[in-house]
Amino acid sequence: MKKRMVVNILVVLLLGGSLFFALKYVNSLRERIVTLENQKQNLLQDLEKEKNTVEKLNIKNMGLSRYLMAARRRLNKSFSALNMALGNIEKLGAQLSIVKAENNALLEEKQGFIRENAAMKMKLGSVDELKKAIRELKRERRVKGNRGLLLKDGKPTSNANIKIEVIPVRGENNERSISAVKSK
Fold first, then answer.
1. I need a surface site. Which of 43, 76, 146, 165 has the fewest CB within 10 A?
2. C-alpha to C-alpha distance for 156 and 162, rounded to whole angstroms
3. What is the SS3 assignment for 7?
4. Higher pLDDT residue, 67 or 134?
5. What number is the average pLDDT over the span 75-81?
6. CB 135 within 8 A of CB 141
7. Helix (H, G, I), strand (E, B), or coil: what is residue 130?
8. CA atoms 35, 38, 42, 44: torsion sign
9. What is the chain's mean pLDDT, rounded?
10. Phi, psi of 125 (to 5 degrees)
């Protein structure tokens, strides 16, 4: 009996120890579950915050994207205006070089006139030279002018070919039309 009692005591001790350890294990599991639930709640709150942050960032990103597109459009317009201005500058540069060339030609012509004027003043500075120049001009006028004659002594006075066309006046009565033209 003693043996049986010892075995019973040992079984009770083992059952008690097992029960103790089982309860301790269940307690630790409950604590762990509570801790995990708290972590879960914290993670859900963090996730919600992150979702809100991502949503705010997406809204801000869309605003910045619109601003960037508008800035690109303005930049494209600015580049177009710049290209047009550069084209205008090139055109104006070409026109400026043409105007400078014309200006130089006019300055050279002016210098020629100034030299010619000075030469004429020196030449015509005396009365004798002035009389010679007047006689020469009269002689040239007689040769060139010819007093409006096309033919002189049967020879043409001008080298230019002259074409004379006669167009009859059309009308009901040619005599009246001709007299009307003559009276005008």
1. 165
2. 10
3. helix
4. 67
5. 95
6. no
7. helix
8. positive
9. 82
10. -70, -25
- pTM, two decimal places: 0.39
% of the chain surpassing 70 pLDDT: 76
Q: Which residue has the tokens 């630790």?
A: 28
Instruction: Tell me the two tokens of residue 179.
Output: 């007299």
CB 130 within 8 A of CB 124: yes
Token pair recorded at residue 165:
């066309």
DSSP string, 38-83: HHHHHHHHHHHHHHHHHHHHHHHHHHHHHHHHHHHHHHHHHHHHHH
| Contacts (Cβ under 8 Å, ≥6 apart) of 171 | 177
**HSE-up of residue 49 (Cα within 13 Å, Cβ side):** 6
CA distances from 2 to 6, 11, 32, 130 (A): 6, 14, 44, 176
| 47-51 mean pLDDT | 95
pLDDT in tens, 83-133: 999 999 999 999 999 999 999 999 999 999 999 888 877 777 777 777 787
Residue 175 near residue 183 (C-beta atoms within 8 A): no
Give backbone dihedrals phi and psi of 157, rounded to 5 degrees, phi first: -95, -10
